[in-house]
Amino acid sequence: MTKQFAVIGLGRFGSSVARTLYEMGYEVMGIDEDEERINANIQYVTHAVAADTTDERALREIGIRNFDVVVVSIGADIQASILTTLILKEMGVRKIVAKAQNERHGQVLYKVGADRVVFPERDMGVRVAHNLISANVLDFIELAEDYSVAEVVVTSNMVGKTLRQLDVRARYNVNVIAIKSGEQFNISPSPDDVIQQNDVLVVIGHNLDLKKFEEKA
To answer: What is this structure's pTM?
Structure first.
């Protein structure tokens, strides 16, 4: 059986998560108090339910414990976000992913039972900043406080060289973990793989080292 997801809060972030999962073929239940949001997203989810998720009885009636992952993406109401997460944890939901407004909100969400906390605005800000630093950076994802993965378009001085010749590990202390070539995705490339024009390097490393690589590559 494929995983089943429930997304609580169908604002911009929640509806985007729900729609993406649905388009990938997963069963998705969308939950929101607002009937208009339910109607706006009904064609992009498997089921859509109007409910107050701070009400444990309402969550039980929905059968929320049957879902593999519940995403709490409640917007401005921090209290409702925290209370919903707490109730889900007490009900025994297997995995809870919660959206946080800020670091303090995130700390509380972890304390009341979230398995993972995401910061959409902060993370998008990080991505945009790295795109502004270097036109070659397509994407930038934080893995931990000091380590990230970046997608970097190869520059003209890289084309025709092998990874061994570029020697980015020694020069920048970062590792190339994959190469994108059009639709091809080369995971764990060998040192003798030749870089082609328009390739994209997927690079992992410490943020400071990635910054040096982005600026000098």
So the answer is: 0.65
